[in-house]
Amino acid sequence: MTRLNALNPEVATGKTKELFNGIQSKLGMVPNMMRTMGNSSAVLEGYLNLSGALGKGSLGSKLGELIALTVAEANQCNYCLSAHSFIGEKLVRIDADSLEQAREGKNRDTKIQAALAFAQVLVAKRGQVSDEDIEAVKAAGYTEGEVGEIVAHVALNVFTNYFNNTADTVIDFPVVEAVATI
């Protein structure tokens, strides 16, 4: 049972209504996560702004989706696993094997693998990475700006994972469940 309610976009008001209208026009729907974030227009707007900015970054949507899956699995967020599996497959056109491997922080491409491994290290070490961790991702060919973008993608996904795990958001995508770690 959900712990935070998803707002009905048709009865939302003020800034939240404005944000919902923008989401509706872009996506054709307002996903439950965003409907739940809409309880605070500041939360929803912050999410949308960071997500939008990262969408214009140099890492690209494919790597962004793979990082999202790596982080969602680490945080056991079924909502984000479901959403990013769907988005990765249907919108970004990532093959099913790559989507599945990303959940384990793996990829056949060594450069992408380095980014996903770094994302796992960021989550596991709560950002307290070592010089060696930084050197490894830079040695794979990432610039300092791109390392910053990887950190930002991880931070955005930790936020959405924590938000959805807290809210127990109703999944409105084909359900994908985290692998039990215990």
TrEMBL record:
SUPFAM superfamilies per record: AhpD-like
Quote the Pfam families the UniProt record gives: CMD
Keywords (A to Z) from UniProt: Oxidoreductase, Peroxidase
Q: Where in the numbering of this chain does the Carboxymuconolactone decarboxylase-like domain appear?
A: 43-84
InterPro entries hit by this protein: AhpD-like, AhpD_core, CMD-like
- Tell me where on the tree of life, at the top rank, the source sits: Bacteria
Molecular-function GO terms, alphabetical: peroxiredoxin activity
Q: List, alphabetically, the NCBIfam families matched.
A: ahpD_dom
Its protein name is: Putative peroxidase-related enzyme
